[in-house]
Amino acid sequence: MTKKYFGGCDVGSTTGKAVILDENGNMVASMIVPSEIDPEVTSIQALEKACAQVPDLGGYKNLAYLVGTGYGRNEVAFANENISEISCHAMGTFFCSPTIKTIVDIGGQDVKTISIDNDGAVLEFAMNDKCAAGTGRFFEAMSRIFRMDLDEFSSLSLKAKKVIPVTAQCSVFAESEVISLLARRNPPEDIAAGIQMAVSKRCFTLLKRIGIRPEVTVTGGCAKNKGLMKALAKVINIEVTPLAVDPQIIGALGAAVFARRRQ
Length: 263
Prior knowledge:
Nucleotidyltransferase, domain 5, 8 helices, 5-stranded mixed sheet, 38% helix
C-alpha cells in the first residue's frame, strides 16, 4: 500500500512556508522561502522544496490532501481546502504543545493574539492590522537603522543597562524618533531595549482583549527575536514558552494537521 502524505502551505507577506506530515502524523519535511510578488509562485516554490525532502512522494501533486493558509491562501497551488491562519496557528501550536493556551503571532504585516481551547480550536482572537508598528516589517526597518541584520538586532537589547522609551505609536514616526535618539548618542542597546519594550506593550494590549491564560507562546518569525521575548515576558509577567519546532512554520504545520484529519 502506498504511504500517504499530507501538506500545509502558509503564504505570508514576507515568507512562504510548507510542512509535510506522513500518515502517522510525523513531520517529515518543512521549508521556508521568501515571498514572491505572485502568491501562487511562492506556494509552488515552498511546496516543491518541501516535497523534495520526501523521495517517495514524487511532488506536491501526489499529496493525499493539501490545506492552504495565510494571506495568500486562496492562491495555494492545488490546495484541496483553505483555512484561516488564525485557526492554523492555534492547531499547529496545539499539535506541538497542548498545554499552551495563549498565542502571540507576530507576522510580517500584522500582530494577532489567539486564545486556544482544550482541543486546539480558537476560543477568541484579536488583531492589529492597521499599522506596521510591532510587525516583522517594523523590525526589518529598525535593524536597517542600526546597520545590523535581524539576528544582531534581536540580541542588541540584551546588553542594555537601561530602557530608553520609544513613544511613537506610528511605524514611520518611530523610525524618526529612533534616528533622533541615535543622533543624540544614546547607547544603541538602550534604544533597542526601548523598541522591544514598546512592541511588547502593543502585544500586551491585544492580549488583554482576549485574556492571558498560561502557557503563553509566540509564533511567527519574530519569535526568534531574543530581545523581544525577554521584554514580552517582563511586560506580561509570565514566562514565554518556546516551541519544539521553528515558530515560523506553525501556521503551515497547523494546516498540515488539518489536512491529515481529512483522510
